[in-house]
Amino acid sequence: MKSLTLLSLFITITASSAFASQCPEILKGEQRLLNSTDTVNLCDEFKGQTLLVVNTASQCGFTSQFDDLEKLYQQYKDQNFVVVGFPSNDFRQDKGSEEQTAKVCYLDYGVTFPMMARSSVKGSDANPVFEKISDQAGVEPRWNFYKFLVNKNGDVVATFPSSTNPMDTKLRRVIEQQL
Asked: What family does the Swiss-Prot or TrEMBL record give for this protein (predicted)?
């Protein structure tokens, strides 16, 4: 009887740790950082955090949202929250080199949140992160600066159109509910 109890305990502990180490589908894989050869393992970097995933463009009417995305990131980063930017030229407003895109993000707007390399965010060539986000949310980005809130479990819990300012009360309320 004692060995059966120990066996049950061992199976429970093993199953619990295996479950805890699983990575949400959205975070499986690596991404190259903007204008860099460095890559980041999304699971290692972001597992267990609330994410605001944003497709960005450096030459868009909404590009000034980088200021408020940075403010939002600074406001909540100590509460397991991260803004993650994915530059894309899908809407033809992130032309030129990645170096130019990085200049806009880092120098012009002072972005400190993670920015991934330029990639497609819709269609058959979509970045795997956006492919999974679109599958869950049932919507692809309709324009630049479309925002997807992903909870700590890797589930898309809200989407916000490009016109929603990052400091919008409703958006911040939904983020706070996830923290």
From this structure: Belongs to the glutathione peroxidase family.
